[in-house]
């Protein structure tokens, strides 16, 4: 790589736009690969970005948007921010456009299935664990909860020089760290992502929540179950920066609902819509349910560890996600969870084999 590596961010979704928007004002050699209306809008008036709760102070910033890799000569770093369900087709198309050129690829997906997909197409892949929430409001417009935090790593702890260079550039706009424990970091993020279908199912950000106490109990019980599953599978806690620690989440799971209500109410205003909810409410047929909750259920089958809470959330999401989706009340969902937990304790429940 030269002094100013050529970077292309692939995907004008929430993560691709927010990352590009934070870095590009301080780094001139970055382009965002977009298509359709996103490409047209960003080319015409730049990228609009705002912090949660401050949409009235949306900032418009210039950003180089391209429609094809042919518009950039031999990119050094390609950041792929599309979701897992689009990753294989996107990677295949990028490989075709890049021909024999081999850039360093930075993968920014939830879960770990990208570790099976990307090596089929690219020789040098760095994986990023994204520890912030962002959402796409419209083509070329993105909101975010906080300024980004990304953990970089590789399964074999190689590509150290490449990761240092990527970190140097990312640090111009976000907080970036390098880990030698990628699998721990990625799996810890999976625990946090377990709540994505839960919050989507109850329509958080889309309908009035009747009981924040019940919603908090469900989320914290889901986190606690996920933490215990990871420990049973041999994984260890890894700091995710601003994300609460395992100790904090476990403590919260032991608190009564009435104590949790004011905490969740206080935070509800700054927690933007998660990526799964963006897909479901946006009318998409694909979600990351299998890559996130489904993967954890597979891990539960391998270890024999019971996960009745995740099973319930997963099953209800499979039932309800799709065209014409309507949220379920947190009370009804909590009732179904408690029934599954009771059945598991009595030995009547088995982990589903979807």
List the topology elements.
Layout: E1 7-10, H1 14-23, E2 30-33, H2 36-45, E3 47-51, E4 59-61, E5 65-66, E6 77-80, H3 84-98, E7 104-107, H4 114-117, E8 125-130, E9 134-138, E10 141-144, E11 149-153, H5 160-170, E12 175-178, H6 182-193, H7 195-201, H8 212-232, H9 246-253, H10 257-268, H11 275-281, H12 289-303, H13 308-320, H14 330-345
Parallel strand pairs: 1-2, 1-6, 2-5, 3-10, 6-7, 7-8, 11-12
Antiparallel strand pairs: 3-4, 8-11, 9-10
Rounded Rg = 20 Å
Strand content of the residues, in percent? 5-15%
Query: What's the pLDDT, averaged over the residues?
Result: 90
The total domain count is: 2
- The helix/strand series, from N terminus to C terminus, equals EHEHEEEEHEHEEEEHEHHHHHHHHH
What count of helical segments does DSSP give? 14
From the N-terminal CA to the C-terminal CA, the straight-line distance is 45 Å
* Spatial shape: globular
- Looking at the overall shape, the CATH architecture of the largest domain is 3-Layer(aba) Sandwich
Instruction: Give the CATH class of the largest domain.
Output: Alpha Beta
The CATH topology name of the largest domain reads Rossmann fold
| CATH homologous superfamily classification of the largest domain | NAD(P)-binding Rossmann-like Domain
The percentage helix is 40-55%
Structural class: alpha/beta
Give, in spatial order, the strands making up the sheet with the most strands: 5-2-1-6-7-8-11-12
Major β-sheet profile: 8 strands, mixed
Poorly predicted residue ranges? 349-354
Instruction: Tell me how many strands there are.
Output: 12
């Amino acid at each position: 790589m030269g002094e100013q590596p050529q970077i292309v961010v692939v995907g004008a979704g929430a993560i691709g736009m927010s990352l590009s928007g934070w870095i590009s004002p301080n780094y001139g050699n970055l382009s965002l690969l977009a298509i359709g209306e996103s490409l047209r809008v960003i080319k015409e008036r730049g990228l609009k970005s705002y912090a949660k709760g401050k949409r009235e102070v949306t900032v418009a910033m210039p950003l180089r948007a391209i429609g094809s890799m042919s518009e950039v000569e031999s990119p050094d770093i390609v950041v792929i921010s599309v979701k897992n369900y689009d990753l294989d087709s996107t990677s295949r198309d990028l490989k075709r456009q890049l021909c024999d050129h081999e850039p360093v690829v930075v993968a920014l997906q939830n879960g770990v299935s990208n570790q099976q997909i990307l090596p089929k197409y690219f020789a040098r892949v760095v994986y990023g664990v994204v520890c912030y929430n962002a959402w796409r409001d419209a083509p070329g417009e993105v909101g975010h909860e906080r300024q980004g935090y990304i953990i970089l790593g590789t399964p074999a702890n190689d590509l150290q020089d490449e990761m240092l260079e990527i970190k140097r550039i990312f640090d111009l706009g976000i907080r970036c760290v390098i880990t030698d424990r990628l699998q721990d970091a990625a799996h810890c993020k999976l625990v946090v992502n377990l709540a994505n279908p839960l919050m989507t199912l109850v329509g958080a950000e889309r309908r009035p929540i009747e009981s924040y106490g019940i919603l908090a109990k469900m989320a914290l019980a889901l986190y606690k179950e996920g933490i215990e599953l990871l420990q049973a599978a041999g994984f260890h806690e890894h700091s995710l920066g601003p994300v609460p620690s395992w100790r904090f989440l476990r403590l919260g799971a032991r608190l009564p609902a009435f104590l949790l209500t004011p905490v969740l109410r206080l935070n509800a205003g700054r927690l933007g819509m998660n990526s799964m909810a963006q897909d479901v409410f946006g009318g998409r047929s694909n979600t990351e349910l299998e890559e996130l909750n489904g993967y954890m259920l597979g891990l539960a089958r391998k270890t024999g560890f019971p996960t009745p809470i995740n099973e319930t959330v997963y099953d209800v999401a499979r039932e309800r996600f799709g065209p014409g989706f309507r949220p379920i009340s947190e009370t009804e969902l909590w009732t179904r969870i408690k029934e599954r937990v009771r059945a598991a304790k009595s030995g009547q429940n088995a982990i589903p084999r979807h």
